[in-house]
Design a protein that fits this description.
The complex is a heterodimer of chains A (98) and B (482). With 98 residues, chain A is mainly α. Helices cover 38% and strands 9% of the residues of chain A. Chain A has a two-stranded antiparallel sheet. In chain B, helix 1 (59-71) crosses helix 4 (290-298) and helix 13 crosses helix 16. Classes of the chains: A mainly alpha (98), B alpha+beta (482). Bound molecules: zinc ion (ZN).
Amino acid sequence: MAENKITLEMVKHVARLAHLQLSDVEQERLRADMDQMLGYVDKLNELDTSKVPPTAQVGEAGTPMRPDEVSNPSAQEAMLANAPAAERGYFKVPKIIE
Amino acid sequence: MATINREKYEAVIGLEIHTHLLTKSKMFCGCSTEFGGVPNDHTCPICTAMPGALPVLNQHVIEIAVRAGLAAHCEVAPYSIFDRKSYFYPDLPKGYQISQYGTPVCKGGYIDLPPDKNGAPHRVRLVRIHLEEDAGKNIHEGGHSLVDLNRSGVPLLEIVSEPDIRSGAEAAAYVQEMRAILRYIDASDGRMEEGSLRCDCNVSVRPRGHKEFGVKTEIKNLNSFRFVEKAIEYEIDRQIDILESGGKITQETHLWDPVREVTRAMRSKEYANDYRYFPEPDLPPLIVPPDLVEAIRGEMPELPADRRARYIREFGLTPYEADVLTAEREVSDYFEATLSGLKNRKTAANWVMTEVLRIVRESGKSLAEAVPAPTEVGALLIMIEDLKISLNAAKTAFATMVKSGKSAEGTVAELGLAQVSDEGAIAEAIDRILAAETEKVNEYRAGRDKLFGFFVGQAMKAMGGKANPKVINDLLRKKLSG
Ligand SMILES: [Zn+2]
């Protein structure tokens, strides 16, 4: 297995996309973890899959579908019951744009 | 900006149109798609991403996607998959949008725009049409933001064009045609002002004759034909201006400011474009069986381009008339419903384009609410054709019918607008006039041709304005020459 497929830069990039703040220690620990996961994928890559079509899913063939019907009742009250903050029927969140 | 040297450059434009689909329920749950409504009322565990909730695809969404694909001459994929497009924003509760990345439901295709002023045809090719779900809506106020998830999970089609467009006007024509198609096939209500159809434009310029593309910018979220045209024209000028003064175009995303009529660049923080697409594990692949595609093909309505061609070919309308009448499906359907029993289609075309559309414009109401039923207008037009009423009388009757909602026949009778074509009655009136005006008759016979109009006027007056002018003319000519 090649060393350090995952760099600290990659960890920082993914953390930024996921809005995570990581300490230096956490960054290094995650880097090592992710590197190990890729090592596992390398193991899978030892199999010859050249004759197998790429598969996103296993399971039943065909797509289960539902008819186009409105089946849900008014939900405002129930939906906001567990919201940390709500106002005038909206979820209230910290300001998004400066 | 100084004068822009447009001659030296060519603009290259590609469009992405997003449209809400005309379904009753959302893409993956049974919540209503109704516009507006009480905030967060049309929500459930699925469209708010509660743990453990699983999406189930709305069958009607697939039917609409196939219709759109067939209307735009695409290849409908028998097998495609859904992907997760990941980004963080409070209007996106799952932290990803279910979309399609590598395998769109429709590939390729094209639409033909109505010929431009010079009669040149214009085909715009498509890259793809794919399905995705909409996000919720944020309202920013004071020190916080408010989130409404009614729109979260509403089905969307994204239609991506090839960069086959060269100007703002062409882009607007493309959006207009695509909107018309989507409305004809009942895919979308096309209400741009409500945001149910919106458009992102990729714009670049290159020196005329060059093959390779310039650096492009993207203008996001345009919601009217006029904004599409203006924003693109502005952006083309802006880019040429930068290049002419030795600068470089930066690849960035712009927003159109409709008040100041300029585009402005978004800060890079406002858009992250590392979406880390991967196959959606909660949904099996989308299988579209060929027999479903064929069944839908068999039920496809006539499209605007086909109607335009038919109106020109069969009804003898001009391209302009055909274009005006087919731009909105309800106008086109109305026009066709006036035609029954009528010989001259041109009369109906003119009537719908002038009288009917004028009333619709002035009233600000929808076609169905603003004007009498098309069959009643048809009845009025047949009366004109049969010379039972004059054109002016028909206009009077129509104005009354708009207010009263009564039938054409009843209104014409009530207002006493029927025209006298009875030759006997008209001949009698003419004889009386000629007998009383011997001097003028002699002058006319001596060569004062202009007096003909005087006699017509007198005869019409004698008949209370209701005589058929053609009969008056014919009889007068006969009697005056005799
Ligand atoms: Zn829902």
